[in-house]
Amino acid sequence: MRGILSAAGYVPYWRLDRAQIGATFGSGGGKGARAVASFDEDTTTMGVEAARLALGAAGGVEPRALSFATASPAYLDKTNATTIHAVLRLDRSVPAFDFGGAVRSANGALLAALRDGPSTLVVSSDERNGLATSADESAGGDGAAALLVGSDADGPVIAELLGVATTTEEFIDRWRLPGESRSKVWEERFGETKYVPLGEEAWNAALKEAEISADQVDHMIVTGPHPRAVRSLTPRLGVDAEKVVDGLAATVGYTGTAHVALLLTSVLETAKPGAVIGVLSLADGADALLFRTTDAIESWTPARTLAAQIDARADVAYGKFLSWRGWVTLEPPRRPEPGRISGAISGRREDWKYGFVGSKDRSTGALHLPPARVSMEGGALDDMEPAPMADAVGTIATFTIDKIAFSPSPPIVFAVIDFDGGGRTAVELCDANADDLKMGDRVEMTFRRLFTADGIHNYFWKGRPVRG
Known about the structure:
Elements: E1 2-10, E2 14-17, H1 19-25, E3 33-36, H2 43-56, E4 65-70, H3 81-88, E5 96-100, H4 105-115, E6 120-126, H5 135-139, E7 143-151, E8 159-167, E9 174-175, E10 184-185, H6 188-210, E11 219-223, H7 227-233, H8 259-268, E12 276-282, E13 286-293, H9 306-311, E14 314-315, H10 318-325, H11 343-348, H12 350-353, E15 357-361, E16 367-368, E17 384-388, E18 393-402, E19 412-419, E20 424-429, E21 442-453, E22 456-465
Parallel strand pairs: 2-14, 4-5, 4-6, 11-12
Antiparallel strand pairs: 1-7, 1-8, 2-3, 6-7, 8-13, 9-10, 12-13, 15-16, 15-17, 18-19, 18-21, 19-20, 21-22
Helix pairs in contact: 2-3, 6-7
């Protein structure tokens, strides 16, 4: 039996009320809200969040391969999956590869993992952009998802793969040249005439391979970057309308590369054993998959549900959203911008920088953040063991609000955190309203981008208020 062992999605804390777009420009926008990655997030950091949650719910199953898919990579030439690999502290023998450049790349990564081979963590992430008042701006959304794929030899399979079919055809519907920040689209009726027959063909072939009929499907996911084609095709699939899964359009938006896995995760989080899940994705062709949940899904507990993340939110002003995206440039603080980080130093401090691993004195148990060679208690030298702290929760001992230090989105909030079980360090806080913070607030750690200089992203850990 081969299928999904664990799943998780990540939805950023911030939301843009679409009505703000129309109120600002007199056109565009709409109803509901879209998820917005913060200024210190990118597709890699969002992928890290989803991957940590998926492994946290995997019952100790470790991936033996890592795939990362995104249409908006933080780096070109450099592999982004290696950053996720480092944060998860996977063994050096675990390969990590990027599947990038197109929305469909996530489907390719998932299909490759489902066919055969070792247990694979398939991470997909996207940040959707568009010109002001465009449909891409308002209907898009930012987010990530992770699916741990393997066989029952790796661990309990919660959703067994029943059938797969794909159809491919070359046509110009949506495109973006390297270096451009927004996609262009062809006249939508053309894409509809292409996608609908491709989708029907793939869906019927997947049903045939699975040896089931459409009326046996309990949850149906239909998605893609062409909304008109999705709407036209859905009634033709033979699945009752009430079984079609909410596409999260009103609360999150279309998350591109991540959307298939995000919707699949939303179904798995509430599905009962024996439920048949259909997936049909329209992107440069059509990919159809059918799964059946197993009895193991009853004992599988999501680390943090999508519903909880969707509910835990705060609104971002439209002007700030535009500045985060780089569409408008605000006057920066009158302080020198940071210089690029050292590749050599980052390599030597990988466990601390990416894994947030401190050191623990073997004789006294004293925790050191950052790691130290000499113990603060007793002075023992080089008698330390690694102390992973990425999953630790702590309390704000004190904090300061800095409106002068350089930041893409001032002010910066720095806090001293006392961690449960020992350890203290100073970190920057994120996803927080400075006016609402107080000493004693609970904080968890999240992997973010501190700044970018000379084309190098300086990733590290920040504190985030515990919610939900």
